[in-house]
Amino acid sequence: MLRLPPFIYLAPATAAEAAQMLAEHGPDAMLVAGGSDVLPNMKRRQRVPKVLISLRRIGELTGISGDAEHGFRIGACATLAQIAGHAGIQAAYPALAKAADSAGTPPLRTTGTIGGNLCLDTRCNYYDQTFEWRQALGFCLKDGSDVCRVAPGSPRCLAVSSCDTAPVLCSLDARVRLVGPAGERTLAVQSLFGEDGINYLAKQPEEVLTEVLLPPPAGLRSAYWKLRRRASVDFPVLGVAVALQSDDGVVRKARIVLGAVASHPLVAVEAEALLAGQQLSEELIDRAAEAAAKPAKPLDMTDLDYLYRKKMARVYVRRALRELAGLPSGDEESA
Fold first, then answer.
1. Which of these CATH numbers, 3.30.465.10, 3.10.50.30, 3.90.660.10, 2.40.30.20, describes 59-119+160-214?
2. What percent of the chain has pLDDT over 70?
3. Does position 335 have pLDDT exceeding 70, yes or no?
4. First and final C-alpha spacing in the chain
């Protein structure tokens, strides 16, 4: 049985107090909300903080408020189950409700939070192992070694972002609020992530993510498709979020974001440009799906064959676009 290492547990009453604690304890401290990712990582000794700072008692981080006309505010400690079951979120942002409902298992969704999901540690088959396994291998860049086990010639860690909600929130132009000792700031969710499996967040170490801010949908329609081996439990090996805003059948705004194919949510810029100002047709959808799959460069660091995952990026973008166009999936290829 893997056991937790010893730690000091602190329970601040406000986000500002939590940020101050982070600043005081420095790299020895970590935040914990639901604990569905932090605690298993501690058991595997991927993270060994001396101090855990809990966010669960901070009332300002809870709850979901707002409406479709003005947008929504989601507290960072709102659980994934609360988001998936919220009628307003389901109606205004169905892709977000679906992404939240597909993360982990029902028990994990009742404890896992939106803030924790956004700050989810990057994943890799070589890193997500016990300490003894990693030690026998010789560790990796993320463990302090000088070599990436996925691509030994890579100068940076290639562990992937496997957060379900991040691609959707990027596609919806959501923002997050961060509170630190020096004050607070807001940041686009897309700007929250860096292209590095180790330094994967733009959030400063002493900052606390306090809430997610969603703009009014204003006619924006969204879809989320997720590929994983077991539909009831696994992390995504591919996540596709698509958001479209149309006027008289013409696409005025298109957002396509891929998850679990890079160290950050990957925006399919070329595919978005193809759709803008056009009417959705089967031929256009196929072209956009092909363009969206181009920047996806999955490597052998997560589940399923990486060539299959590359192929499925095209298939799943096509499925999401056809869903929003009101067309049947129409796949000649199967997942």
1. 3.30.465.10
2. 98
3. no
4. 35
